[in-house]
Design brief:
The chain contains twelve helices and 20 strands. Helix content is 30%, strand content 22%. Strands 1, 2, 10, 11, 12, 13, 14 and 20 form an eight-stranded mixed β-sheet that branches. A seven-stranded mixed β-sheet has the order 8-7-16-17-18-15-19. It has a three-stranded antiparallel β-sheet with strand order 5-9-6, with no helix packed on it. A hairpin with a 4-residue loop joins strand 11 and strand 12.
Length: 413
């Protein structure tokens, strides 16, 4: 039995950050188990057509967390990154407008603007209608029928490829109300006067490599404490063992809970909670033609197109050409001759009962000194900078106190 103080499952951003923080603080009794032959998780890159392509989709380093960037620049120095001001757009077929939709209605033809203004004026949140519970009713209640019909509902149908009323609405609470008055002023002045980008308003991307280079460097820094091609199949929560071969004082899981074939030492309610967790799979497909656009990426609600987003590689990966698409696996044509990468675990799905299910899992696991961390360990759609921040905080807590309390590794219930 291989015994360590800290056993980390998964060498993605969460696991690599935690492992490197442990090493930096002088801790040597830790081991990372990685299923693949290479580190990085969804942030891996591969060379395609002479330049790097991010095989897990569009991942960038947000500038908003200086403490995170300072830490990451230890592994890929700041001078090896380019900084960009985000340009993202929405393709509506006949028209292309800036993202976010609600603050760019003024870019549409006048008759379209009028229809949107009428719909926003009648949106339920603006006229005092009680908040609906179903996702499909909540979207027009919040944004108006026109935005819902032209963008949000078709885009989400493509993105999730499931019955949208299986989704909760709790994760959309951060969406701002679309004000009729502000939208009208924006249309009259023909400029954005409200609304802000939710993330990556400005971002870094490596000058000479794909995003995966950062995580490979982090893996190299702990090369003596990482084992590749080891899938965590079985976990005994009470004994804190994995695959019957590894035992730890504390286990930190950054892998999808549903990926274990056998979880022991828990009750049936725990197993039921794991079964209730849903996820989507995504296909990344490469096209070699370079499109005439200044956008870094673009959203496509048109349900006749299989993909929901395009990343224009040549606009952030200097010296490259072409673009890649992101498509839900259920919609993807894998026989069209294009180079593609399939990601089984891409996005945790915010189903109606997800919060209850993951809270039970994390609480029961924490009671056994097993902690969920990161996108999959906590079943939250965290961007990489958020994941790194949480992992840094978790490392500080376990190093400072020798124990962790709370349902999640980040200490939030």
């Amino acid at each position: 039995m291989n015994r360590v103080k800290y056993l980390i499952l998964g060498a993605g951003p969460a696991g690599l950050t935690l492992a490197n923080r442990l090493k930096q603080e002088g801790e040597s009794s830790f081991l990372v188990l990685e299923e693949k032959s290479e580190a990085g998780g969804l942030c891996r890159s591969a060379e395609v057509d002479g330049k790097m392509l991010d095989t897990g989709g569009g991942h960038f380093l947000d500038i908003r967390r200086p403490e995170v960037n300072k830490f990451l620049f230890e592994f890929l120095p700041e001078e090896e990154w380019n900084r960009f001001e985000r340009i993202s757009k929405i393709d509506l077929g006949e028209h292309v407008i800036d993202y976010p939709f609600e603050s760019s209605i003024w870019q549409l033809p006048e008759d379209e603007q009028i229809e949107h203004l009428k719909a926003i004026a009648k949106a339920g949140c603006n006229i005092g209608v009680p908040k609906p519970e179903s996702f499909v009713e909540w979207i027009p209640w919040k944004l108006g029928e026109k935005i819902a019909k032209d963008y949000m509902l078709p885009y989400n149908r493509k993105m999730w490829s499931m019955n949208l009323n299986e989704l909760g609405t709790y994760w959309l609470e951060k969406l701002p109300d679309v004000s009729f008055e502000e939208t009208l002023k924006s249309c009259l002045r023909k400029q954005r006067i409200f609304g802000s980008l939710p993330g990556h308003a400005a971002f870094y991307y490596p000058k000479e490599y794909g995003y995966g280079k950062l995580w490979l460097n982090m893996a190299s820094a702990i090369k003596d404490n990482i084992e590749y091609n080891v899938k965590a199949e079985e976990i005994d929560m009470r004994e804190r063992t994995v695959n019957g071969q590894y035992k730890a004082d504390i286990i930190i899981n950054t892998a999808p809970w549903v990926s274990f074939s056998n979880i022991q030492g828990v009750d049936e309610k725990f197993h039921d909670a794991v079964r209730r967790l849903k996820y989507t799979s995504v296909v990344i497909k490469y096209f070699d033609e370079t499109v005439d656009t200044d956008a870094h990426w673009m959203y496509f609600p048109d349900e006749k197109k299989e993909y929901h987003r395009i990343l224009y590689r040549s606009n952030f990966c200097k010296g490259s050409k072409g673009y890649w698409t992101e498509t839900n696996l259920k919609r993807a044509d894998l026989n069209d001759g294009h180079t593609y990468f399939k990601n089984k675990y891409a996005y945790p799905v915010n189903t109606i009962d997800k919060r209850e299910a993951i809270a039970y899992i994390l609480d029961e696991a924490a009671n056994r000194k097993v902690f969920g961390l990161g996108r999959w360990g906590e079943w939250e759609h965290y961007n990489s900078d958020v994941t790194v921040s949480l992992a840094m905080g978790f490392a500080d807590r376990i190093l400072g106190k020798g124990n962790v309390k709370g349902k999640k590794a980040n200490g939030k219930g």
